[in-house]
Amino acid sequence: MFGIKLSTAKNTRPIRTIEREMEMTRARYQKYLDTTSDNYMAQRGDVKIKDPHTMAGNAYKEIREFIDPISKLAKKYNKEVVFEDARVLTRDDEFVSPVTENSFMTKVLVSVRDKSVNKKEDSVFEKFKNGKLVDKFEKPEIPFMKKISQALGELFTGKKDANFDAELGIK
C-alpha cells in the first residue's frame, strides 16, 4: 500500500545503537586529538611562525607580508627561521616570575638554525641561545620589520649591524 518492502536481503546491516554511535564518535575524536597538536603554526618554505595569533600587536601580519623574501634568504643560507611569541615560551615554566613574563609580552623570538643539523625540536634554552628577541614596541621610530631584518642579518652572518633591508625590500 505505501510501497515499503521489508525484504531481509537488503537489510542485512545491523541497526546501530546510540551507545555504538557514541563509541565511534569518541574514537574519531581521540584519533583527531592524537594526530593534531595544540600549537598553531603557519609555515611557508623554510620559515615557521609559531603561535601567530598571540603575538604582540600586529606582528604576525607584518611578518606574513615578508614571508616569501625571508624564505628565499633562508634557502640561500641553508637555514630554517622560526618566529615565536616569546611569552608563550615562558608560560609553562613554573619558575618564571610574572615580571619576566610581562616583559616578554611585547617580544618576538627570532631563532635560526642550520638545516643540515638533524634535530627534532630545540629546547627553550637552545631557542634563546640561537635566537634573538625583537621587541615590537621598543623604539617605535624604527619599523618592526627593520628590527627583524637586523636580527636576521646578525643571526645569518654572525656580524654585528648586518641586515637584509635590500633583500626584503625595506627602505
Characterization of the model:
This protein has eight helices and five strands. With 171 residues, the chain is of the alpha+beta class. The model has no long low-confidence stretch (mean pLDDT 79).
Largest sheet report:
5 strands, mixed
Number of strands: 5
Query: pLDDT below 50 for ≥5 consecutive residues: which ranges?
Result: none
Report helical residue fraction. 40-55%
| CA distance, first residue to last residue | 82 Å
The Cα radius of gyration reads 25 Å
Mean pLDDT over the residues: 79
The ordered string of helix (H) and strand (E) elements is HEEHHEHHEHEHH
Give the helix/strand layout.
Layout: H1 18-35, E1 41-44, E2 47-50, H2 59-65, H3 67-77, E3 79-85, H4 86-91, H5 98-103, E4 107-114, H6 124-129, E5 131-135, H7 144-157, H8 165-168
Parallel strand pairs: 2-3
Antiparallel strand pairs: 1-2, 3-4, 4-5
Keywords for this structure?
alpha+beta, 5-stranded mixed sheet, 42% helix, elongated, 171 residues
In short:
The chain is an alpha+beta fold. The protein has eight helices and five strands. The termini are far apart.
